[in-house]
Amino acid sequence: MAVFRKRQKDAQPVPVMEVMTTVLAGLGAAPEQGAARARLQQLWLNWDMVMGPDLAPLARPMGHHRDLLLIGAEDAMLAQELHLMADEILERVNAFMEQPFFSAIKVSLLMGKAGLDKTAVRTSAPIRPARPARPEPPEAHGLYLEAMDPSSPVARAYARFVRLRQQK
Question: Where in the chain are the domains?
Fold first, then answer.
């Protein structure tokens, strides 16, 4: 496909790729960035395959910052283990990216965050545990008031509690 420039005497067709490259460069983006984003998306979706069945559930992808791969771990001991496996993780990821895309990894605790891998992409919101129902306060009959010293702060507090519960 070709694009023609504004009417000129000897107008020549210009390839679309050249026009798009010029437009993207004017916007501050390069065509390689779009390809890299698409490849990163494929990495997140294929994380289980890239890391393998043993490592994938332990190392959750959290994103990237320039050439730094961000990985999440459930606890500090696992984070230390993943940090020690950084070379192997980088080798697997860069092999999938078909270029040395990442030069280092940063492992941090998940702290309830979802990763970018396929299992996290499927769920739209984080799953939060149901809040337990508040237990009802015990019934107050005032049976123990007779045995208590009426001047005691505990007896006065218990007597007030009994009065409040009986008003309901």
Answer: 11-122, 140-168
